[in-house]
Write a structure and sequence with these properties.
CATH superfamily of the largest domain: Aldehyde Dehydrogenase, Chain A, domain 1
Distance between the termini: 56 Å
Bound molecules: nicotinamide-adenine-dinucleotide
Strand order of the largest sheet: 14-15-16-13-12-18-19
Strand content: 15-25%
Number of strands: 22
CATH architecture of the largest domain: 3-Layer(aba) Sandwich
Mean pLDDT: 97
CATH topology of the largest domain: Aldehyde Dehydrogenase, Chain A, domain 1
Length: about 475
């Protein structure tokens, strides 16, 4: 196990060719629950990205020549290293991002372990296609793409970085990654863990810093052949605009405004529970959060009563307290954006059923970016609060009369990431799932993930799918070899 302080302080440097690399300038990394400075953060520039790309290119041939089994063994050792540091990494993630430490321990860090173990297994067991003709045999190989640029957001820092890094490494690529400047600490810790696990120098490089500086330099670097970007839709437009004319392989996982649809035949206890979890997990800062709840009118009053009661029971407070359900938002500017949407809802005549304020949480947390879990009712399904991504602990409730109306409202945003649907009618589950314009539908559950399945969105929620064989394909070049018999 490595000390928490030394892992956190490693973010003051980039990580290039297996060692810390200093930068001339620094940003600050603050705990959003207290406002306190944690560590200076390296502010990488285009020259740092270039150095990282050169290290990645130098390491590429040897890493790409290793067998899938050899690479999988190293991925398993990285997973072991993350697992051995679970408590430390959960504390780092919580202090850096604002999420409850209990959530980081239960979800974020175990999922990072699972990402490495899953893709180690996936490449060990992958089957490559062959197509026999009467007089020829086609077989398809997968070779590394080259240097991959991985850019990740602040909400699930280690979870999302490892979701990209594990398959990229498994397929023999080398990597230059840029975590969000708002929650970079677990990525810095991961670089140290990868080295301890025996990952060769130069295979995984990390450049910290701002999107328009380090991020833009990665997206525009001519020797980076693949970009996997997770973040906001507006940034995605910019990333696509730079990368597409350079013919880079591109995966864009962008924003969401996901509907939870509750039909009168649903198991109400489970639906209320699921809808609250979908709305407020990680303070509502998950792209998959169900931030618009559409409820069949006949059960609406009872649903609303129970939903609000359960939300009022969520314990908001110090993310380090193991009993906290809702922690701090990621930054004060983000908290102000969330509060701005609630002000807008007030102007639009919404009823605020609970929340709608900055809570007072006592000594030590006065400077924190907290916002009370908020339930809004009485807004149109086409209002701004019901269609724009707020990405915080704010949910709108809407009654509907018919299944058609529910589907139309669910599809009535620019986004198309996911939906969850609560019903005991199997035919309805099939019918409605088929009509929802999203990449993922959960029926009578939310955020149940099988890593073999495709993950991604439609419309303005992104382009492409990652997960299982979709990741193996994305992080490799397929080559068909046709042999005349
Ligand atoms: P963001 O777009 O502001 O930043 C994401 C990353 O891109 C950061 O590392 C940032 O530094 C970098 N970046 C910013 N400008 C850039 C540029 N010009 N070139 C290259 N990189 C640049 O997003 P955020 O605020 O960090 O994250 C929240 C958003 O991410 C939400 O919209 C959320 O829905 C989305 N998200 C989507 C998924 C998904 O799987 N679809 C998952 C998590 C989060």
């Amino acid at each position: 196990m490595t000390s928490q302080t030394s892992l956190m302080q490693s973010a003051a440097f980039n990580w290039i060719n297996g060692e810390p690399a200093p930068t001339q300038e620094h940003l600050e990394c603050r705990n959003p629950a207290t406002g306190r400075l944690i560590t200076p953060l390296a502010r990488g520039q285009a020259s740092d990205v270039d150095a990282a790309v050169r290290a990645a290119q130098a390491a590429g041939p040897a890493w790409g020549a290793r067998s899938f089994e050899e690479r999988a063994d190293i991925l398993d050792r990285i997973a072991d290293g993350i697992e051995a540091n679970l408590d430390v990494l959960a504390a780092i993630e919580s202090q850096d991002q604002g999420k409850p430490v209990s959530l980081a321990k239960r979800i974020d860090i175990p999922r990072a372990v699972a990402n490495f173990r899953f893709f180690a297994g996936a490449v060990r067991h992958q089957e490559l296609p062959s197509h026999r003709m009467a007089d020829a045999l086609n077989f398809t190989t997968r070779s590394p793409v080259g240097v991959c640029g991985l850019i990740t957001p602040w909400n699930l820092p280690l979870y999302l970085l490892t979701w990209k890094l594990a398959p990229a490494l498994a397929m023999g690529n080398t990597v230059v990654a840029k975590p969000s400047e708002l929650s970079p600490l677990s990525a810095a810790a991961l670089a140290v863990i990868c080295k301890q696990a025996g990952l060769p120098d130069g295979v995984f490089n990390l450049v910290h810093g701002l999107g328009p500086e380090a991020g833009q330099a990665i997206v525009g670097h001519p020797d980076i052949k693949l970009i996997s970007f997770t973040g906001g839709t507006a940034t995605g437009v910019h990333v696509a605009g730079t990368a597409a004319p350079m013919f880079k392989k591109l995966s864009l996982e962008l924003g969401g405004k996901n509907a939870t649809l509750v039909f009168a035949d649903a198991d109400l206890d489970k639906a209320v529970d699921g809808a609250v979890r979908a709305a407020f997990t990680n303070q509502g800062e998950i792209c998959l959060c169900g931030s618009r709840v559409l409820v069949e009118r006949s059960i609406y009053p009872e649903f609303e009563r129970r939903f609000v009661e359960q939300v009022k029971g969520l314990k908001m407070g110090d993310p380090a307290d193991p009993n906290t359900d809702v922690g701090a938002l990621n930054s004060l500017p983000h908290r102000d954006k969330v509060a701005g949407y609630v002000d807008l809802a007030r102007e639009e005549g919404a009823q605020i059923l609970c929340g709608g304020e900055v809570p007072e949480l006592g000594p030590g947390l006065e400077g924190g970016a907290f916002y009370a879990p908020t339930v809004l009712a009485g807004l149109s399904t086409s209002s701004r609060c019901a269609t724009e991504e707020i990405f915080g602990p704010v949910v709108t409730l809407h009654p509907f009369e018919t299944e058609e109306e529910a589907v139309e409202a669910a599809n009535g945003t620019r986004y198309g990431l996911s939906a969850s649907l609560w019903t005991t009618d199997l035919n309805r589950a099939h019918r409605v799932s088929a009509q929802l314009q999203v990449g993922m539908v959960w029926v009578n559950t939310w955020l149940k993930r099988d890593l073999r399945t495709p993950f991604g969105g439609t419309k303005d929620s992104g382009v492409g799918r990652e997960g299982g064989r979709w990741s193996l394909e994305f992080y490799s070049e397929s080559k068909n070899i046709c042999i005349q018999l």
